[in-house]
Design a protein that fits this description.
The protein is α+β, with helices and mostly antiparallel strands. Among the domains are: 22-91 and 103-115; 231-379, Rossmann fold (3-Layer(aba) Sandwich), CATH 3.40.50.300. It is built from nine helices and seven strands, in the order ααααααβββαβαβαββ. The strands form two sheets. The protein has a four-stranded mixed β-sheet, covered by helices on one side. Strands 1-2-3 form a three-stranded antiparallel β-sheet, covered by helices on one side. It is elongated, with a radius of gyration of 55 Å.
Length: 380
């Protein structure tokens, strides 16, 4: 019994403490509530405080977002001021219309720059991997009208090719349908037999073709080897003579092939540039002909031929310096065979004498019926 009384006293003490703390909370919060409504009032106040706390947290978050936006806006404002500073300095002070015009021009400039950037990107994308600078260099000096004409021609060519592709595609479809009809018909076996026979004949013809091609290649290789063996010494000698006759303007001769067709070219003194025969002057062509002729005659003499060389006014298109070089070439030839030079230009007598000294030169003058003096020179 005593224990129960102690427990009851303890409970009453706790209840009293709880009531006192409740009353103190109600008083501190300034709530108007009777003894029985205090707990419900405190509970309602606690819920309100929780809502206020949530609201405070939300407002703090929104405040941080607003501060971030403010910082961004300040950065944009600074950037705008930096951009507008040259415009403001360029516009008359206080002239709003002038400033608006400058802003319009700035927007237009920005738009044009963006269009140029897109155009450059499109050009590079269509430039087969070339850079913009390389494409600009490639089109420099070209005529836009020519490019437009070429583009139109290419477009027409493309249209024609597309039509041909469509025509060939339709023909292929018809052939495939016809082939399918044959394959499914009663004549399929006969067609297969004919095809097998055709394949056998094709193999035989292919073997024959390969043998003939091999024979042609061997024959061409033999001909080319013979030509090189005979042509190389003659071309080398003609190159040396051509260099002498042109006073060093050409260093030699070169043979190039356009397919199977040989082309004779003159190599300039720098060794890099070449000139075709149809690009030479008349006098240079005469010197080329003389170089080839003398080289051929020297080769013939070395092979045992013993015939005199007759030259009839070879130096008509030569000046005195090149005529002197020509006489020196004929002087070298005279060491192998007799050279007879005919001319109706008396002044070449002195040129020949100076050029061929100390060789012995014999001259013979003839009087024609018209009393014109022709000169012929024989160099021994």
């Amino acid at each position: 019994m005593l224990d129960l009384e102690i427990q009851l006293s303890d409970v009453e003490a706790r209840v009293g403490g709880h009531d006192a703390r409740t009353q103190a909370a109600v008083t501190r919060l300034g709530l108007q509530a009777g003894p029985h409504d205090q707990m419900s009032s405190l509970h309602a106040e606690a819920e309100r405080a929780a809502r206020l706390a949530d609201r405070s947290t939300d407002l703090k978050a929104r405040l941080e977002v607003a501060r971030g936006r403010l910082t961004d806006s300040q950065g944009l404002l600074a950037a705008a001021e930096t951009v507008l500073k040259p415009l403001l300095s360029a516009a008359p002070q206080g002239d709003a219309s002038a400033l608006r015009e400058l802003l319009r021009q700035a927007r237009e400039l920005r738009r044009l720059r963006e269009e140029r950037r897109k155009a450059e990107a499109d050009i590079v994308e269509s430039g087969d991997g070339h850079s913009l600078e390389g494409l600009i260099v490639e089109v420099e000096g070209t005529n836009p009208d020519d490019l437009a004409t070429e583009a139109q021609a290419l477009s027409e060519r493309m249209d024609d090719l597309n039509m041909r592709v469509e025509t060939q595609s339709a023909a292929r479809q018809r052939m495939e349908a016809a082939f399918q009809a044959i394959d499914d018909g009663p004549q399929a076996a006969a067609a297969a037999s004919d095809m097998a026979q055709a394949r056998s004949e094709m193999v035989e013809q292919a073997d024959l073709y390969m043998r003939k091609r091999a024979e042609i290649r061997l024959l061409r290789a033999g001909v080319e080897r013979y030509r090189k063996e005979k042509q190389a010494p003659l071309l080398a000698r003609a190159s040396d003579l051509f260099n002498i006759l042109t006073l060093g303007a050409f260093s030699g001769l070169l043979v190039e092939y356009d397919g199977d067709v040989p082309k004779l070219l003159g190599v300039r003194a720098d060794g890099a540039a070449v000139t075709p025969v149809d690009g030479m002057s008349e006098g240079t062509v005469d010197q080329l002909f003389l170089a080839l002729r003398v080289a051929a005659i020297e080769d013939a003499v070395d092979q045992g031929a013993r015939l005199p060389f007759l030259a009839d006014d070879l130096f008509v298109n030569y000046d005195d310096e090149r005529a002197a070089a020509g006489f020196k070439v004929l002087g070298d030839l005279a060491a192998k065979t007799q050279v007879l030079f005919f001319t109706h230009h008396p002044h070449l007598k002195a040129v020949a004498t100076d050029a061929l000294s100390p060789l012995k030169v014999s001259f013979c003058n003839f009087e024609s019926k018209m009393a014109l003096e022709d000169a012929d020179a024989r160099v021994d």
